[in-house]
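Example record used in the benchmark description.
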Amino acid sequence: MKFPSFIRNDHGKLSVFGFDLKLLISIILATTTTGIFLFSYTRSDVKKLKGKDPPDDDATDKGDKTPKTTNSTPDTTPPPVPKSAESSASTEKSDKVKAFHKQIEDADKRGKAFFKAKEYLKAAACFTEALDLIEESTPQSTTSSAGATLNPSVKRQVITLTNNRGAMYEKAEGGVSNTDGVSVYADLALVDCDRVLELDVGHSKARLRKLRILESC
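Model output (structure tokens):
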């Protein structure tokens, strides 16, 4: 391969194929620089386009301000009760139950204390107080056959308290006699015996007490 020879023109400058060498080199450099710049700019735009995510559906709807309608029915489910509220309600209920049982126990203890002191009517009043507390908290009547459906623990309390009160009435002395000449306290003792036997037919103490009172009349 034969390379072109450099010659000097009439002005003493180097030339190739009749072109000024310096001018030719300037043109080549300018063309190369422009090409490199265009190539770099094109690659940068391609990378930017590749890095962009497709627009969201909401972005295309920004101009549309018409509210979207749905056919779903409203949710009527009540919000869940916080656990802290449930725990608080449970604790409050438990405290009330404890206070209720303590009132009954206190009345029963006072009644037994009066019994030991032979103050039978005061003891009977304490047992009545305990029975009234149970009756107020129980929708069923303890003086009818419906009492047989009472909670077992409550039923035992009613039987014990009623039997103890009947024993106090039996031991009480004096009192106004009824038209048959029988003490009012004896009548009250008979009523309590019947209540106990209604809840517990086989209650031996109530049966014996009723028999003693009837024989003494």
